[in-house]
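Lab meeting, item 3. Inverse folding demo.
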């Protein structure tokens, strides 16, 4: 049998898998596009919240999953992005487009400042410093009444007329999530993303071959802050209000749990984790006020039985089955 014939006998399985994945993705997008015509306004709002949270969790995973950095206060950049939009729209006469452009840039700037200090540390020390500096930003927002309204927050944030309905907000958050995920995926597969993985797996060896580990980690930190700022913009579109609680440490803890739930080693893991956690919190909240207890039990179950996360578990099982078929 010729080489061409051999290669042609091996390609169909891979080609079928690629077409199947593409087909499922297209079907999923079509279903999401039809949601506002099928479900009630409440569920449309709920899914818009899921999209916003999914983007936030995915941005954290660039630092946590691909960079291997224990980032404990990623929510601060989310809050900074949301507050930037709120302040621009209520304190100035600038158009909404300026607020949208400024929000991720301000969030990235804060990430640059915090990251500049933090990347000099590793492990738990890195995480504790991110937590401390994040809480410092929260304290500034909480106390600066003249600019942020303090603990009262900012409400009734004006948005353009074409974003006044929940359906238009739904499609905007969906498009924002899809575009951001595509960009993050390209970054993760780029030479920078692969180098970031190398710094995660073996930082000492990476430094020995000439890789500037601190610089790569700082860049990843800033990129994650930028996309968290975009998530903050989407949050304002959905909620039309902001409060200091967005920047408090427990918000960051929820994001961290989303990443762990879905799987840190799988790109779409945080998206799945965000969807599960948001929907579960809404359902559980209808029947009991002890959501944190349920969350704790869920986290304990994940750590004990699914340390690789839900999607990570299925991807690992699928990989083992494929390898077994290959051996057969």
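The presenter then showed the designed sequence:
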């Amino acid at each position: 049998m010729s080489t061409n014939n051999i290669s042609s006998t091996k390609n169909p399985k891979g080609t079928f898998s690629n077409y199947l994945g593409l087909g499922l993705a297209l079907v999923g997008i079509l279903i999401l596009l039809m949601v506002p015509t099928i479900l009630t306004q409440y569920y449309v709002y709920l899914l818009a919240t899921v999209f916003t949270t999914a983007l936030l969790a995915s941005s954290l995973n660039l630092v946590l999953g691909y960079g291997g950095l224990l980032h404990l206060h990623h929510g601060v950049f989310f809050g900074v992005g949301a507050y930037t939009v709120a302040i621009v729209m209520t304190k100035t006469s600038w158009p909404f487009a300026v607020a949208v452009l400024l929000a991720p840039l301000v969030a990235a700037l804060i990430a640059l400042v915090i990251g500049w200090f933090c990347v000099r540390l590793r492990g738990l020390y890195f995480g504790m410093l991110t937590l401390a500096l994040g809480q410092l930003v929260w304290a500034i927002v909480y106390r600066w009444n003249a600019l942020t309204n303090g603990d009262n927050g900012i409400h009734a944030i004006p948005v353009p007329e074409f974003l006044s309905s929940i359906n238009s907000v739904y499609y905007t958050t969906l498009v924002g999530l899809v575009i951001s995920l595509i960009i993050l995926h390209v970054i993760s597969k780029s030479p920078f993303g692969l180098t970031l993985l190398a710094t995660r797996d073996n930082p000492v060896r990476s430094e020995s071959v000439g890789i500037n580990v601190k610089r790569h980690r700082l860049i990843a930190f800033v990129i994650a802050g930028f996309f968290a700022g975009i998530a903050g913009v989407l949050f304002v579109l959905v909620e039309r209000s902001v409060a200091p609680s967005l920047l408090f440490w427990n918000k960051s803890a929820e994001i961290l749990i989303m990443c762990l739930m879905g799987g840190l080693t799988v790109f779409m893991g945080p998206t799945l984790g965000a969807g599960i956690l948001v929907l579960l919190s809404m359902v559980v909240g209808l029947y009991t006020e002890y959501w944190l207890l349920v969350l704790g039990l869920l986290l304990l179950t994940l750590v004990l039985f699914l340390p690789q996360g839900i999607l990570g578990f299925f991807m690992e099982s699928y990989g083992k089955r494929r390898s077994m078929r290959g051996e057969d």
